[in-house]
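Continuing the batch. This is chain 6 of the set; chains 1 through 5 are on the previous pages. Same settings as before, nothing changed between runs. Recording input and output for traceability.
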Amino acid sequence: MSDQHRHEHGQHDDHADHQHADAGPRLLWALLLTLGFAGVEAVTGFWAGSLALLGDAGHMVTDSASLALAAFAAWLSQRPPTRRHTYGYGRVETLAALLNVLFMVLVVVGISVAAVGRILEPTAVNGEAVTLVAALGLALNIAVAWLLMHGEQTMNTRGALLHVLGDLLGSVAALVSGAIVMWTGWVTADPVLSLLICALMLASSLRLLREVLQALMEGVPPSLSSEQVGRALASLPGVASVHDLHIWTLSSKRVALSAHLIVESLEQWPTVLAAGRHLLAEQGITHVTLQPEPLSSPVHWLPAGDKGRLQGV
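Output for chain 6:
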C-alpha cells in the first residue's frame, strides 16, 4: 500500500472484537433460561386461561428464537475477512437485529388481535396461578435483562434485549392482571394490560428499526455529523479543504470513513495523516481511509473558514 492511500486499524477494532466475543456466551445463557421458563408459562397459561400469561410465554418463545439468532450472529461476526467479504461479517449482527425487530412486530400484532377478542368476549382466568407464575417469570426476565445489559451493546444484543424487556413488561402485565382478577374478579384486566404492553414494545421496536435501517442504508451514524467531521478535518494544519467525504457503519461498534484531503504540500502529508487519524479516533471512527491531493485539485468542499457551502472551482 502506498503512502498516498492508507488505512487505519487500531486498538479500537481489537477491543470491539473482544467485546463481541463476550456477547456470545451471554446470549447463550439468556437463551437457555428463557426457553426453559417459556414451557412453564405456556402450560400454566392454558390451565389458568390467562391471555397475559400465554402472551408472555409466546414472547419467551420468540425471544428464544431471537436470542438463538443473536448468538449465531455474534459467533459469525467473529469470522475473519475473506476475499469475498473484505470487511468481515460484522454486518450480520445488524441483519439479525432487523429480523428480531420484525419478529417482535409480528408478535405484537398477534397478541393485540387476541387481546381485542378477549375484551369482546371475556373468559375466566385463574388469578392465583397467573400471579405466582408471572412473579417467577418477572424474576427470570430481570436476571436475563441484567445479563445482556452488562455485556457489549451492539445492535444485535440490543435487538435481543428488546425481546427480553418485552417479556419483562409482559410478566409485569401478567402479574398485575392476575392480582386484579384475584382480588376483584375483573377478567378484562388481563387483555387490557396486554394491549398496553404491546404498545410499549411496538414503540421500542420502531426506534431500533430506524437505527438498523440507517446502518443498512450506509447512513452516517446518529452520533456523528458528516458536516462537523468534514469541518474538523478541513481545520487541520496543512489542509486546504475536504471532499468526497463518506461515513458509514460497518458493524455496531465499527465506523468507517473515507475522504480526500486537499493539502497545501504533499511533503506535509505524514504529519497531516497522523493528526487526521488521531482526530477521527477521538470521535470513535476506527476504520479510516484518507487520500491526499495537491492544492491544485479542481474540487473544493468544506474549505477552512468557509460557511459550509459546497464550492466548485
